Amino acid sequence: MKVLLLELYNYREWTELLGEDREWKIQEVQHFLSYRLVDRVSQMGGALLPLRYDLFLVLADGIMNAKLTSLFRYAVRLSPVMVRGCMGHGRNPVEAQGEANDCLHDLEPGRLSLGNYEDSPVAVVHYDLNGFRDLTAQTSMYNAFVEVQKLVLDVMLRTYKLGGVTQYLGGDNVITFLNPEDVDGALDLVSTNVKAGVGIGFTPRQALRNATKALTEIRKERKVLWKIVSGQ
After folding, report:
1. What is the DSSP letter of 203?
2. What is the pLDDT of residues 14-24, one digit of tens each?
């Protein structure tokens, strides 16, 4: 599987130049960059995980290097600091990002390193907390948020061992990208409180769409707690 890491170089040093009344300014820049990059990566068929906001992870299977180069140049134009980027490859996203991370350490700012790697199928497990709306109404908005964060941490810790990378999407939605061969292990989290739609595709966006389709079918049928949808 292929992962591209984009790092905003010397980002912390830049934030310290903004003065003490800076957190709102940092939030503005972070969400602006995330919005623009998520949109651009999605148009390419990929998926972008903001992670720390100074380090973006791009699931890149099915995307040509020419498009990734264009993405890098776009990020350079948007960023308040210099950017550097590295592609990594591995059996799963964790291995791929590890290789990309090692590459970043030796790369000069402003540079992009891409290898010629084969594309692999992508799997996404989209977890959904059952009864989230009722939980919010019966307790409070923040209490429900805390419960979702417990799910996020649980998913992250368990699927990390499978080589999966996890992102909270908002609401009660949590996704994990992983090797399709490791999906069974990720379904151990499914319970009466959690359902999961699994999508498999040739690109990350296609896999995400299939996972959403699987969740929609679960809600309609109300017979199963997980379902797999694959293909185009």
Report:
1. S
2. 999 999 999 99
* Residue 34 · residue 54 · CB < 8 Å: no
For 155-168, how does the pLDDT look when each residue is reduced to its tens digit (9 = 90+)?
A: 999 999 999 999 99
Q: Write down the H helix ranges in 51-182.
A: 65-78, 93-105, 132-138, 141-160
**122-230: what CATH class?**
alpha beta
pTM of the predicted model as reported, rounded to 2 decimal places: 0.94
Yes or no: say if 176 and 204 are a contact pair by the CB < 8 Å rule.
Answer: no
Strand partners, 200: 123, 230
Q: Where are the domains of the chain?
A: 2-113, 122-230
Q: Place domain 2-113 in its CATH homologous superfamily.
A: Nucleotide cyclase, GGDEF domain (3.30.70.1230)
Taking Cα atoms as reference points, which of 64, 40, 47, 50 lies closest to residue 7? Answer: 50
Q: List Cα–Cα distances, 137 to 43, 130, 133, 169, in angstroms.
A: 36, 14, 6, 21
